[in-house]
Amino acid sequence: MTATSLFLFTAIAFAALSPGLDARALQEQAPPPVAPLATPRSEPRSDRVARLEGERRELLAEVAALRSQPVGQAGTAAFEARIAELERRIRELESELAKLRADALRSLPGTQTPADPTGLQPADPFGQGGQVTAGNAFNPSISVIPDGVYYNDDRGGGATDIIGGAAGFDTHAAETGGHGHGSVERGFNLRELEVSFSGSVDPYFDAWAVLAVSGAEIEAEEAFVQTRQFIPGLQVKFGKFFSGIGYMNRQHPHQWDFVDQAVPYELLFGGALNEVGVQVNWLPSLPIYTLVGFEALQGENEGVAQHLGPDTAASFADRAGPRLFTGFVKVSPDVGYSGALQFGASLGHSRLHQEQHDGDAEPEALEGTTTFFGLDAVYRYDSGKQWGAGDVTLQSEYFRRARSLDVVGLGSQPVAGPPRDFAQDGLYAQAVYGFAPRWTAGFRLDLAGLVNRVDEAGATTTYDSSRRYTANVTFNPTEFSRFRFQYARGDFAAASGREAYNQVWVQFQMSLGAHGAHKF
Amino acid sequence: MQNAKCTMRMGLLATAMVVFAAAPPAAAAPLNVVATTSSMGMLARVVGGDAVRVTVLAPPDRDAHYLLAKPSMLVALRRADLLVAVGADLEVGWLPAALQSANNPRILPGQPGYFEGAAQVDLIEKGEAADRARGDVHPMGNPHYYMDPPRMARVASALAGRLAAMTPAAASGFSARAEAFGRAVAERLPEWRRQVAGAPGAIFFHKDANYLAQLLDVKILAYVEPVPGIPPSASHLRDLVARLKGTRGVIIHATFQPDEGPQFLAKSLGWKVARLPLEVAVDADAAAYLTHIDQWVAAIASGK
Q: B268, CA 20 to 30 Å: which among A8, A429, B31, B211?
């Protein structure tokens, strides 16, 4: 049913793409055409406007002069007729001018280069419609962002595996014994090379493609198009993209204020919710910023909508997408020029989520549904000083995930095991302060598993919570380059008791090319 | 007629959408104009008069190069009929992102609702290499033309044309007010020239008053920044002192620019330092703009 309504919606939306709603409104405003004035048609529009304006001014002056005549002369029939004739002519001129202006508006030129060396010649009476920009012709804007780190920890390089092994979360990293997202070697690493392309496709669409190159792998991190001229307020995005849930979810690693991703994202979404699908967002014209969004996603993301299928275990179902649906709301009250405040709430439901757990002897296949919700809040203070001095960012997000899974297989044998209900949550809170021009200091607290339990056949197993403390100092020589020094201490609940670690990172990032601006 | 056809073709929901989207604005409602900076807001207010309602996105005490595309900006952009931008990539760090998220197709570049001042005038310092090793360069030209009153007058008359095309009923008011602004600038110009005549020149922090210097034939002796967008280093400041020791001039910097560098130069060279707003107040009128230029002229003249 959802798929049907989605299709119907898309069909309607495309039918409504017909251009020119505003143009039609403008045409309606223009008065009906009058008898053509006796003027050469070859005259440039701007000259013609100037000439008609001049004529109109003269006639207005003449009417004013006549009206200021002594009372005795006024009121005669001939006098009134003269004024009426002049006023008729003025009206004609005005409607002709209005028509010319409406024409000019419809035929605004594109990019242009003013030729006048002094900049002081009379202006084009319509105002040029072009944009002066360094954007390079028809090529997409390209940027390349290498993310290099030096890394070390006091657990023989195993600290990232300790995060992935947090008790109760059943992450991919735990299941496969390590090397999930964000795993690095001790020493120097080129974690990722982000190559992004963006530009407008045609009058209707903008497009982005972001490739993440790491080692020998190239991953299409994002590849989507987004509508430009839709129904005002409505925007549709489709392709592969970072979901609009939460605040940090759609940020690329180079936008993070810390070297690594927050623990709740790492443990609940395997890093981030990044899916193929459709997003529709609606920004109603309200005095307070309110954005509402819905997504229908294929449903392959680790942690919430993993789809392993019969190839992994015979007892796993194979179900057509979309299998994951999300919704989000963002509200931002205006707090003046010096601040920005935004609250968000997200909800998601997956129709199918499959996991494989290590059983006593053979791996267990679990299958069921997942529901999650999240709350986020961000406050940014802009001190107005240059190079970020005195700026403050406070940011926090909470996510809670519930998985209702059944054991459907043991090894290659289908079984009908008891249902297991998992509930886990995660929270992070961070503050970043610009303590000097171009320098920031950041502090972050990550908590995971404040709620951390499994209900199976009336019995509840609870797991301990995990936490991480992070501090960093960042130096941004310009907005295109960055050095970051980060220390973290983790204290995690593992299957065999608690595991602690200390980590240090030194990061260098830079942005090469026409890197676009970031959204809030 | 067209709506009737749509109804049959697209069904009930589509009709509702089209009717909603095509509902004409109330006849007397002022045009919603969003200006990126307070100078452009001043211009929109001066030219538009009662026919416009102006919202300014960037506060006057901030550097318009570096702003965050905040949700509150999106609220204004979402409701805008006309966007008046400085252009020439001054707002490139935040305006494109804001426009992408504002879900308002009327004000995208190329649409009648997008007006960029830089496209109306000729820019100086055009054609510099697009090489970031030279700092925060603007290959399309210096975007700070809002410090040049005659160029602003030209932008005003172009803006009058655009507003006239959008609300033809108020056309004569727009052009009359734009002309009045141009006349006020022309009347003040000789006095500015007289005041700065014989001034030895100025050190600016950034290339933000270059148009004014060119207009009034004032020599720019140096910049506090070693290259645009990079904070002054000690060696750069020492070089400047060595080069300018014993000469005369004045140091002028904008309120949001740090004053350590300018103060160091002032002390070492024995010059005066002036800290002035680069933008007019958010609700400024034409008189406030001319007074704002008066301040800069007086500061330049104080180097004599």
A: B211
Mutation for testing the B interface, residue in A18, A227, A337 having most B CBs under 10 Å: A337
- The overall average pLDDT reported for chain A is 84
**Contact call for residues A197 and A225 (beta carbons, < 8 A):** no
> Which residue of chain B has the CA closest to A20?
B22
Full domain range(s) for residue B241: 194-301
Give the predicted TM-score (pTM) of the model.
0.78
The residue ranges of every structural domain in chain A are: 23-112+120-134, 141-513
- Alpha-carbon gap, residue A29 to A49, rounded angstroms: 19
Please state the separation of Cα A496 from the chain's center in Å. 40
Query: Are B47 and B177 contacting, i.e. CB atoms less than 8 angstroms apart?
Result: yes
Helices and strands per DSSP (H, E), number in chain B = 10, 8
- DSSP annotation string for A466-499: EEEEEEEEEEEEETTEEEEEEEEEEEEEETTEEE
> Among B166, B185, B204, which residue terminates a domain?
B185
- Which conformational region is residue A299 in: left (phi greater than 0), alpha (psi within -120 to 50 degrees), or beta? left
Confidence of residue A419 (pLDDT cuts 50, 70, 90): very high
Rounded-to-integer distance, Cα A337 and Cα A314, Å:
59
- B259 in reach of chain A (CB within 8 A): no
List the one residue out of B90, B89, B108 whose CA is nearest residue B98: B108
Chain A residue with minimum CA distance to B172: A53
CATH of domain A141-513: 2.40.160.10
- From chain A, the residues in CB contact with B138 under 8 A are 134
Same domain, B233 and B284: yes
Q: Are residues B261 and B161 in the same domain?
A: no
Residues B175, B202, single domain; the answer is no
Query: A500 to chain B, minimum CA–CA distance in Å?
Result: 38
DSSP alpha helices (H): ranges in B37-170?
38-48, 71-79, 95-101, 149-166
Same domain flag for B9 and B111: yes
Q: Does B68 touch chain A if contact means CB atoms closer than 8 Å?
A: yes
Q: Tokens 């947090």 correspond to what residue?
A: A166
ipTM of predicted assembly, 2 dp? 0.80
Q: B159 and B67 share a domain?
A: yes
Give the CA distances from residue B283 to residues A187, B57, B93, B159, in Å, rounded to whole numbers and listed in that order.
Answer: 56, 12, 24, 18
HSE (side-chain half, CA atoms, 13 Å) at B256: 24
Residues B26, B154, single domain; the answer is yes
Domain of B294, CATH number, reads 3.40.50.1980
Q: How far is CA A164 from CA A180, A363, A490, B78, in A?
A: 7, 19, 12, 42
Yes or no, beta carbons of B120 and A437 under 8 Å apart: no
At B218-234, the pLDDT tens digits run 999 999 999 998 899 99
Positions of E strands within A47-186: 141-153
Neighbours of A381 (CB within 10 A): 17
The phi, psi pair for B268, rounded to 5°, reads -70, -35
Q: By the CB < 8 Å criterion, does B127 face chain A?
A: no
Which residues 130-169 of B have a C-beta within 8 angstroms of A? 130, 132, 136, 138-141, 145, 148, 150-151, 154-155, 157-162, 164-166, 168
- Interchain contact B14–A (C-beta under 8 A): yes
**A81-116: b (≥16 Cβ within 10 Å) or e:** eeeeebeebbebbbbbbbbbbbebbeebeeeeebee
Distance of CA A298 to the CA centre of its chain: 19
- Per-residue model confidence as pLDDT tens digits over A426-444: 999 999 999 999 999 999 9
Report d(CA B245, CA B222) in Å as an integer: 13
- Alpha-carbon distance of A179 to A177, in angstroms, equals 7
